[in-house]
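Why Putative aminoacrylate peracid reductase RutC? Reviewers of the renewal asked for a concrete example.
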Amino acid sequence: MTIKRIHSGGAFEAKIGYCRAVVAGGFVHVAGTVGQGDTVEAQCADALAIIGKVLTEAGSGFENAVRVTYMLPNAADFEACWPKLQETFGANPPVATMIECGLIDPKYLIEIEVTALAGA
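Here is what the prediction returned.
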C-alpha cells in the first residue's frame, strides 16, 4: 500500500511529530486542525480553509468527506458553527461526532478532524 504524507508546515507538526494528512487505503485522514481568530465562528472557518487546502492537495474535497469530528472546550459554542458547516458540507454531509474536551491551548475554541475518500 502506498502512503502519502502531506505536511502544512504548522508549528505543532514539528514540535509533536505528525503531519497534516495521510493518504492511505483509499482515504485521506486529516489531523485535528485548529484555526485562528477571536471567535469560534472565525476559528471554524479558518480550520475548514486549512482542511480544504489539504484535501485539494490530496486530490479530494469536502464532497468526499465520510467522517468529521468536532472538538470544543465548550459544547454550547458549537451551534454558532452550524451555518458554516452546512455551507461547507452541503447536501451530502458526512457522519459527525462532537466532543466537549480540552484543547492543546486555551485560545483554541474548536478543532476539526476529517476523513474523506481519496481521489473520488
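The first strand starts at residue 4 and ends at 6. This is the kind of structural detail the renewal will allow us to pursue systematically.
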